[in-house]
Amino acid sequence: MLRFIFRRLLLLIPVLIGVSIVAFLILHLAPGDPAQMMGGIEASEADLIMLRQKFGLDRPLPVQYFMFLKGMFTGELLSLRYESPVMEVIWPRLKNTLALASVSIVIAVLIGVTAGVLSAVKRKTWMDYTATVFALLGISMPVFWWGLLLMLLFSVKLMWLPSGGMGTPLHYILPSIVLGTASAGIIARMTRSSMLDVLRQDYITTATAKGLSRRLVVGRHALRNAMIPTVTVVGLQFGQLLAGAVLTETVFSWPGVGRLLVTSILARDYPVVQTSLVLIAAFFVLVNLAVDVLYAVLDPRVRYHG
Amino acid sequence: MSKKLAALLFFAFLLVFSAAPLLAADTTLTVGQGAEPVELDPQNITDNPSEEVCFQIYEGLVGFDVVDGKLEIAPRLADKWEVSADGKTWTFHLKKGVTFHSGAPFNAEAVKKNFDRLLSGKYKRSTLFSVFLSEVKVVDDQTVQFLLSMSFGPFLHTMSHTAGIIIDPTLIDANADVKNNPSGTGPFKFKSWQKGEKITLTAFENYREGKPKMETVIFMTIPDDNSRTMMLETGELDIAERIASFEVDRLKENKDIALTIQPGMRVMYMAMNNLDPILKDVKVRQAINYAVDRESICKNILKGFARTIDSPMAFAVNGYAPVKGYTYNPEKAKALLAEAGWKPAASGKVLEKDGKKLEIKLWSPNGRYPMDMKTSEAVQAFLNEVGIDAKLSTMDWAAFLAATSKKPEENNSQLFLMGWSPSTGDSDWVLRPLFHTKEWVPGGGNRSFYSNTEVDALIDLGMTENDPDKRKEAYKKAQELIVADAAWLTLFVLDNVNGRRSNVKGLVESPLELLFVKGVTKE
């Protein structure tokens, strides 16, 4: 198992180099002059030349790429927009997004798995239909609209919850519900269908036949197996939440990395965008690795060999 | 039982926490900005939210007072000043007994250190001053002289710019991280910055005009327009900047909220490439000006929060002159196009000349300015009415700037929507960068490749003349010539709309899209 994890971690290196090259090329191929974005519309030619020299933007592309790699390892890579080390720019915001995404995924799993199990067990009853409708609504509702609706109700009308910023646990409630809604829907659908598959298996019939209570059959025998595909989805969703939090962050003024990423792309802040993409990619890979490890925990038949 | 208990606990939790964070103390002022400040080093900033925060922390030798929506030069850290007869030496007499937040004294040496730093050429705003400023000389502890390389008409306006405000010299000596740990002589001290979220300032107890009433001022970043408005309604914000036009009617009905609507300094215009084979003909440019109903765009698209203007500079800019422009007249537009050789085609609405259709590229930013894309769509429709097939396309701001700042031989722009607000509040900072022949892109900011030797001479005169009346006269003539040449399709001046809780008094709102909170009280 340890060897498996180690090998997967080694694989991170080529993945991240690939991501960094692709991110670098896409950004540099897009039209737009970072010096102009730094200097603003009022900048003179002399300002632009000064800025290009200061940040090495006048150097050939391969040189710029190696400067980027070197800067990442030495921690000296500067954001063009903030003129501060990129990690000082990214980390405080990444931390906020990680916190929000973690709360969201917990909410999504709690709601999604409960709804999924209930609608599988009570298949074709009003409970199933209600859960299905809500799951589909959750998946298809635009984040902006849903966020503003909740804000209108809980912040403006009822004055129960703050509508923006962070600081207290209460600030987490609305954004994490909004961010987790779509994932909850997807998890519910996945849990329902895999649960239905499992409930049709012979061993479930056996368990029922030997007189186990319905609760024990569903809770212990069915759920554990049904969770295997769900865990994959949860892992993927967590990655998605991290990268896709930008809309929620904008609506709820959450100082996260999604908003930073969009601002940095618009400002052509190459170092921040490239580093954020590499970090998000690394995170995605690590979450997937965690999912694979979880398989082995859930399913004793799965064993990894080095 | 346990379910009931959980539900009870949840509601108890809500009750305990709900009201608390929504209501801030009476001595705390929370301002919602639409974008996050980038940094707080005044010599390096180029964005409006950063400028606004800087102006609460630092002061310059002079500054702008807002009088009837216009800017007037007023003393700040200098009591009085005089200029030599040749206009090349400005002497400032500094206020006594002023200290920086660190306790360091404010004096002539501090001023010199600041401008030496700026003139080093390492900061983004260096060239704003290096064009005219050679040296700053300490005469005595309370007197400082600015030696100019040429007489410079907009000198005091430029001194009132963010780049001219005075940083604590102890920071400069220590080569400290000014952008993240600012210190000045202003009414508020920097306390903390949660990146992406908020900047907290506290009242400066030794402020030269007395300690401000607000103990704490928080600048929060609230990027979404709807959220900013809602947070004002809930009271989480005391002030919300840049209220979207569609929210105004609703907010007007709320007696807890007061709105200020005043014309800003940003003129929106369709720049025209004056070198383009089609647009180099002045008749075509004039026809475009006649073809577009600007009143209708202001009324229907900007919901009345914009005012049509003929001059390329806003009403509040020093040197603005009302000039006669073009009123909506599609028939006249068609006649001018016919004079230019563009005649109706055998089929279709689009005019033709020598078998070539009258097609013009129209580039628009999307989301950069209020209703920018909708404005461009309206212009497209109006042009279509007179037989011009405007092909509208949009690009992100960086790509837009790159495409419109190429040198003449590579530049294939034709008609493109832009906005300009002169950060010094003076005509020079509209006319020189945008209309002087020497300022053609990529070297300057003249993206229309407009060129008129007479206008160049008037701009030069206005720049070097110190007599305000002579400057005004020169700028008036320049504005008339530019409008007669139809260099742009000038559209409108945007209104600044800010909202505040009704109990917030004493807020100063500058047409430069800046708020000054030092005199604010909450009743």
CATH homology group of the largest domain in chain B: Dipeptide-binding Protein, Domain 3
Structural class of chain B: alpha+beta
**Cα gyration radius of chain A (Å):** 24 Å
**What oligomeric arrangement do these chains adopt?**
heterodimer
Q: Which CATH-level-2 architecture of the largest domain in chain B?
A: Roll
Largest sheet descriptor of chain A: none
The total strand number of chain A stands at 0
Tally of individual helices of chain A: 13
Shape of chain B: globular
Query: What's the CATH class label of the largest domain in chain B?
Result: Alpha Beta
Principal-axis shape of chain A: flat
Explain what this protein looks like in three dimensions:
Chain A has helices spanning 2-29, 34-39, 45-54, 61-74, 86-121, 126-140, 143-157, 170-199, 202-209, 214-243, 246-251, 257-266, 270-298. Chain A is mainly α and 306 residues long. The termini of chain A are close together. The model of chain A has no long low-confidence stretch (mean pLDDT 89). In chain B, strands 1, 8, 9, 10, 11, 12, 13, 17, 18, 19 and 20 form an 11-stranded mixed sheet that branches. A 4-stranded antiparallel sheet of chain B has the order 4-5-7-6, covered by helices on one side. Chain B has helices at residues 2-22, 48-57, 108-119, 126-130, 155-159, 169-173, 225-234, 248-252, 282-291, 294-301, 330-339, 372-385, 397-404, 428-435, 453-464, 468-484; strands spanning 28-33, 62-67, 70-75, 78-83, 89-94, 133-140, 143-148, 188-194, 198-203, 216-221, 239-240, 257-272, 306-308, 343-344, 351-353, 356-357, 359-364, 389-394, 415-420, 488-501, 504-505, 508-510, 514-516, 521-522. Chain B is globular and about 80 Å long. Chain B is an alpha+beta fold. The longest helix of chain B is centred in the first third of the chain and has 21 residues, at 2-22. At the A-B interface, helix 2, helix 3, helix 5, helix 7 and helix 12 of A face helix 1, helix 4, helix 7 and helix 13 of B.
